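can u do me a favor
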């Protein structure tokens, strides 16, 4: 019985909100908007989210962070200074980064943010660097779109696991 009252209250609130919206929409003077033209006011991708982190175990001063839509960054100063190392790639959304710890110059990147959300950016597969992020080779998995994790098998560096979400929507 109590759930019926809650359902009634929700419908009542929606009805009041809809009535207020339609009443205010009728008061807009469209003549005032006649001279307005659409214009670009900036990028649509939201940045600022760190989506992946890995550190060289033998030298924690060297670390990589992947961002939702701002590429891959590297620090050799323990995080005091950062430089972008993935800007030459065709995609800047990073979902995963993995360092081969026995050979830390080898770095793997999974593109496409692996955290489903309304402003999620997609990627185009997996990349690998053999020279600590100076150059990158695209290895495939283009259609995975969003990679959340890349794990290098610690017993066999020739085995790499990729956890891909796929298309979020």
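np, heres the sequence
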């Amino acid at each position: 019985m109590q759930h019926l009252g809650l359902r009634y209250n929700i419908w009542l609130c929606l009805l009041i909100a809809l009535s207020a919206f339609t009443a205010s929409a009728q008061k807009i003077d469209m003549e005032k908007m006649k001279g307005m033209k659409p214009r670009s006011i900036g990028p649509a991708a939201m940045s600022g989210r760190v989506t992946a982190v890995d550190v060289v175990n033998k030298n924690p001063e060297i670390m990589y962070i992947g961002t939702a839509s701002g590429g891959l960054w590297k620090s050799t100063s323990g995080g005091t200074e950062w430089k972008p190392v993935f800007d030459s790639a065709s995609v800047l959304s990073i979902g995963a980064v993995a360092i081969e710890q026995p050979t830390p110059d080898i770095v793997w990147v999974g593109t496409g943010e692996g955290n489903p959300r309304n402003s999620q950016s997609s990627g185009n597969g997996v990349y690998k660097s053999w020279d600590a992020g100076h150059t990158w080779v695209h290895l495939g998995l283009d259609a995975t779109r969003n990679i959340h994790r890349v794990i290098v098998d610690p017993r066999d560096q020739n085995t790499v696991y990729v956890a891909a979400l796929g298309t979020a929507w």
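The two ends are 37 Å apart (CA to CA). hope that helps!!
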